[in-house]
Specification:
- By secondary structure, the chain is α/β, with parallel strands linked by helices.
- 53% of the residues lie in helices and 15% in strands.
- The strands form two sheets. The protein has a six-stranded parallel sheet with strand order 4-3-8-7-5-6, with helices on both faces.
- Helix 2 crosses helix 3, helix 2 packs across helix 11 and helix 10 packs antiparallel against helix 11.
- The longest helix has 35 residues.
- The radius of gyration is 18 Å and the shape is globular.
Amino acid sequence: MDVFNINIEFDPQLIRDTIERHIKERKKAYVCVVDANVISVAQKDLKYREVVNSATIGTCDGSSIAKMVNMIYGTDYHAYNGPEMFETYIEQPYKHVLLGNRVAKIEQIRSKVKEKGLDLDINHVDVPFLPVEEFDYEAIARQINELKPDIIWVSLGAPKQDQFIANILPYVEQGVFFGIGAAFNFYTGELHNSKHEFGGLKFIWLERILKEPKKQLRRVGGFLRVMPRMYWEEWKRAKQSRTLNTDR
């Protein structure tokens, strides 16, 4: 669905089928995890919007996004967020590469997987802290290609992780990339992914604000600044579409 200028798929089964088809066929793909920060940056940065929309598939990573779409279009969509996908797939018998983040965090993830009695192939590719245009993408891709992964989890934060994936994808031979953000921290228990909704909202961002106030308030503020106009423009678009369908 093209909504708020972003391609978002709300059908979790279609998302899973797309992921698993690319894994089975040993093809490369990019899953964009579309949260409020991704949407707000993409409204202003057209180059970044192109990166997001070039993903193989995008999933809704925000109950507020699904709520707005439902209000405009009368649908009943729900978010299928990054922490949910990470928890589902990291415990599957695929060959995983975790890219970015701290070594200690990677060890926490491996330990949790082992605690569940799973013996999985989880590798780590460390990358330096650099601006996105300064990475040696060919060298990093060589490390990934040697591992022949099924899934590559990129934890560099948005929008950087999406730009990173777009830049490295041409050099990689196989594997499904996820720009996964804070999903590592949700999996290890530092953050909590609420399973409950109140009025269609999960309020996961509240805990993140408490733990990272400066960073998260800046992101929430950015979203709130673009949201009224974004919502109004999508509402007008939906109204025009309904009018055209009625006239026919």
